[in-house]
């Protein structure tokens, strides 16, 4: 069966062939395409955050595409752009990564928190991390943990593995585009690096991407609403406490690789009101870190 265009010009889902043989595009029956019509029915509603959901078969980067739409004035707050495959996906520090088509959830959302002071927008990646962790725990039934500032960890074979990453980018003066990449059905022989993992390898009860995406977006809508209603206050919204409770970085000895080739080693003791990671160094100084690569060195032994 072939694609049929939706009324907004995007395409609906292709259906896999009835038999498992042949060389058709959807021969991997473990990775069916997303049901865009079902996603819209389940998520787009009057008074809700999500206004438009588009699914494209292939693109370079959903973040780049959605930032461009925001700049052109063709995307409103609550726009969601999902790709079945990304060819130039970007992480923090402009790192690139790829994954097999339909093996994960690759999407970006546009938010415009006008009532929140810009100084508090730095909490949005951490808020998204909490929302993704909450949504996946409920829907996939896997234990998750957050690695500051923007990674989601799962346990595979007794080891922590990265299964998701988050990237936030400004979109004009009043918007933020947040991109999320989640490894869903990635197999062991498909892992890009040994430290990567996936929901499937972590024993998820489902790898059906439709309910997983709905669960994550509903969780993000809930947390974004709480945070926005509190004027972006991380304490009043419960975000700071919830993030700390689920953060695997806290209580660990870490190495922070900071801008300017500076390295700071210490115990991660807190996430402060600005969303920064606070390290207690051997010199007895508590130093906040707002940007940089964090490496978990080892658990702190009491």
UniProtKB/TrEMBL annotation:
It holds the Pfam family BPL_LplA_LipB. It comes from the Bacteria. Keywords: Biotin, Ligase. GO terms for molecular function: biotin--[biotin carboxyl-carrier protein] ligase activity. Residues 1-31 are annotated as: Disordered. Residues 38-228 form the BPL/LPL catalytic domain. InterPro entries: aa-tRNA-synth_II/BPL/LPL, Biotin_CoA_COase_ligase, BPL_C, BPL_LPL_catalytic. This is biotin--[biotin carboxyl-carrier protein] ligase. It comes from Streptomyces incanus.
């Amino acid at each position: 069966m072939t694609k049929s265009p939706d009324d907004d010009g995007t395409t609906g889902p292709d259906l896999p062939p009835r038999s498992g043989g042949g060389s058709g595009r959807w021969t991997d029956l473990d990775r069916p395409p997303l049901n865009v019509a079902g996603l819209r029915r389940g998520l787009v509603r009057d008074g809700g955050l999500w206004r438009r959901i588009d699914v494209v078969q292939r693109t370079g980067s959903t973040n780049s595409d959605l930032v461009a739409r925001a700049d052109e004035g063709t995307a409103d707050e609550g726009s969601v752009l999902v790709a079945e495959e990304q060819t130039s996906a970007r992480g923090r520090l402009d790192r690139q990564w790829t994954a097999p088509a339909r093996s994960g959830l690759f999407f970006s959302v546009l938010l415009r928190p006008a009532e929140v002071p810009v100084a508090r927008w730095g909490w949005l990646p951490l808020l998204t991390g909490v929302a993704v962790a909450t949504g996946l725990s409920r829907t996939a039934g896997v234990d998750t943990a957050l690695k500051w500032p923007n990674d989601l960890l799962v346990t595979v074979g007794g080891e922590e593995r990265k299964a998701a990453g988050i990237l936030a980018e400004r979109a004009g003066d009043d918007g933020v585009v947040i991109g999320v990449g989640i490894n869903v059905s990635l197999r062991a022989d498909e892992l890009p690096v040994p430290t990567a993992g996936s929901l499937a390898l972590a024993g998820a009860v489902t790898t059906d991407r439709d309910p997983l995406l709905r669960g994550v977006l509903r969780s993000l809508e809930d947390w974004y609403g709480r945070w926005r209603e509190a004027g972006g206050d991380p304490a009043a919204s419960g975000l700071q406490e919830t993030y700390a409770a689920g953060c695997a970085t806290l209580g660990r000895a870490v190495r922070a690789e900071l801008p300017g080739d500076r390295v700071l080693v210490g115990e991660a003791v807190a996430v402060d009101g600005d969303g920064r990671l606070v390290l207690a160094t051997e010199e007895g100084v508590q130093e906040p870190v707002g940007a940089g690569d964090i490496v978990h060195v080892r658990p702190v032994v009491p």
